[in-house]
Amino acid sequence: MEQAKKLIEAQHGVIRRTELAEALNYSCEHISRIIKRHTGYTLKAYCQKVQLAEAARLLRNTEFPVSQIAASLGYENRTQFYKVFQREYHLTPLEYRRHDSED
Protein backbone atom coordinates (compact mmCIF):
# COMPACT_ATOMS: atom_id res chain seq x y z
CA MET A 1 0.00 0.00 0.00
CA GLU A 2 2.82 2.40 0.83
CA GLN A 3 4.33 1.95 -2.62
CA ALA A 4 0.96 2.59 -4.25
CA LYS A 5 0.44 5.75 -2.18
CA LYS A 6 3.92 7.01 -3.04
CA LEU A 7 3.35 6.46 -6.76
CA ILE A 8 -0.05 8.16 -6.66
CA GLU A 9 1.28 11.11 -4.69
CA ALA A 10 4.37 11.44 -6.90
CA GLN A 11 2.03 11.77 -9.89
CA HIS A 12 -0.28 14.15 -7.94
CA GLY A 13 -3.11 11.68 -8.43
CA VAL A 14 -2.78 11.71 -12.21
CA ILE A 15 -2.17 8.02 -12.83
CA ARG A 16 -4.18 5.31 -14.52
CA ARG A 17 -5.05 2.11 -12.77
CA THR A 18 -3.22 0.13 -15.46
CA GLU A 19 -0.05 2.20 -14.96
CA LEU A 20 -0.20 1.69 -11.22
CA ALA A 21 -0.83 -2.05 -11.55
CA GLU A 22 2.02 -2.41 -14.02
CA ALA A 23 4.44 -0.44 -11.84
CA LEU A 24 3.62 -2.61 -8.82
CA ASN A 25 3.28 -5.86 -10.75
CA TYR A 26 -0.28 -6.54 -9.59
CA SER A 27 -3.56 -6.90 -11.42
CA CYS A 28 -5.78 -3.84 -11.77
CA GLU A 29 -8.43 -5.49 -9.63
CA HIS A 30 -5.96 -6.28 -6.85
CA ILE A 31 -4.70 -2.68 -6.80
CA SER A 32 -8.28 -1.42 -6.58
CA ARG A 33 -9.05 -3.75 -3.66
CA ILE A 34 -5.88 -2.74 -1.77
CA ILE A 35 -6.63 0.97 -2.15
CA LYS A 36 -10.25 0.52 -1.07
CA ARG A 37 -9.29 -1.60 1.94
CA HIS A 38 -6.64 0.82 3.20
CA THR A 39 -8.20 4.19 2.38
CA GLY A 40 -11.93 3.55 2.28
CA TYR A 41 -11.98 5.17 -1.16
CA THR A 42 -12.09 3.74 -4.63
CA LEU A 43 -8.87 4.25 -6.58
CA LYS A 44 -10.52 6.98 -8.64
CA ALA A 45 -11.80 8.81 -5.54
CA TYR A 46 -8.44 8.49 -3.78
CA CYS A 47 -6.60 9.86 -6.82
CA GLN A 48 -9.07 12.72 -7.00
CA LYS A 49 -8.43 13.58 -3.33
CA VAL A 50 -4.70 13.64 -4.04
CA GLN A 51 -5.28 15.84 -7.12
CA LEU A 52 -7.40 18.29 -5.15
CA ALA A 53 -4.86 18.48 -2.34
CA GLU A 54 -2.23 19.36 -4.94
CA ALA A 55 -4.58 21.93 -6.49
CA ALA A 56 -5.12 23.51 -3.07
CA ARG A 57 -1.35 23.60 -2.49
CA LEU A 58 -0.78 25.27 -5.85
CA LEU A 59 -3.55 27.79 -5.19
CA ARG A 60 -1.98 28.68 -1.84
CA ASN A 61 1.64 28.82 -2.97
CA THR A 62 1.66 29.99 -6.59
CA GLU A 63 0.08 32.57 -8.84
CA PHE A 64 -0.63 30.03 -11.60
CA PRO A 65 -4.01 30.61 -13.24
CA VAL A 66 -6.73 28.18 -12.17
CA SER A 67 -7.00 26.91 -15.74
CA GLN A 68 -3.29 26.01 -15.74
CA ILE A 69 -3.59 24.22 -12.39
CA ALA A 70 -6.63 22.29 -13.61
CA ALA A 71 -4.87 21.28 -16.84
CA SER A 72 -1.71 20.23 -15.01
CA LEU A 73 -3.82 17.86 -12.93
CA GLY A 74 -5.47 16.25 -15.92
CA TYR A 75 -8.72 18.20 -16.03
CA GLU A 76 -9.55 19.04 -19.63
CA ASN A 77 -12.78 20.75 -18.61
CA ARG A 78 -12.31 23.73 -16.28
CA THR A 79 -16.00 23.66 -15.31
CA GLN A 80 -15.64 20.08 -14.11
CA PHE A 81 -12.56 21.05 -12.09
CA TYR A 82 -14.47 23.89 -10.43
CA LYS A 83 -17.36 21.57 -9.58
CA VAL A 84 -15.12 18.87 -8.08
CA PHE A 85 -12.99 21.41 -6.18
CA GLN A 86 -16.04 23.16 -4.76
CA ARG A 87 -17.57 19.85 -3.67
CA GLU A 88 -14.39 19.06 -1.70
CA TYR A 89 -13.54 22.50 -0.25
CA HIS A 90 -16.94 24.26 -0.30
CA LEU A 91 -15.29 27.18 -2.12
CA THR A 92 -14.44 27.81 -5.74
CA PRO A 93 -10.71 27.71 -6.51
CA LEU A 94 -10.60 31.52 -6.70
CA GLU A 95 -12.48 31.90 -3.40
CA TYR A 96 -10.08 29.37 -1.86
CA ARG A 97 -7.08 31.37 -3.08
CA ARG A 98 -8.51 34.66 -1.79
CA HIS A 99 -9.58 33.13 1.51
CA ASP A 100 -6.13 31.64 2.05
CA SER A 101 -4.35 34.91 1.26
CA GLU A 102 -6.45 36.69 3.90
CA ASP A 103 -5.29 34.32 6.65
What does it look like?
This protein has 103 residues and is mostly helical. It has helices at residues 2-10, 17-24, 28-39, 43-61, 66-72, 78-89, 93-102. The chain starts with a helix and ends with a helix.
Terminal Cα span: 35 Å
Radius of gyration: 15 Å
Strand content: under 5%
Question: Strand tally, please?
Answer: 0
Overall average residue pLDDT: 93
What profile does the largest beta sheet have? none
By helix and strand content, what is the structural category?
mainly alpha
Shape: elongated
- Helical residue percent? over 70%
Low-pLDDT residue spans: none
Count of alpha/pi helices:
7
The H/E string reads HHHHHHH
SSE order and pairing:
Layout: H1 2-10, H2 17-24, H3 28-39, H4 43-61, H5 66-72, H6 78-89, H7 93-102
Helix pairs in contact: 2-3, 4-7
Overview features:
mainly alpha, elongated, 75% helix, 103 residues
Summarize the structure.
The chain is mainly alpha-helical and 103 residues long. The chain is 75% helix and 0% strand. Helix 4 crosses helix 7.
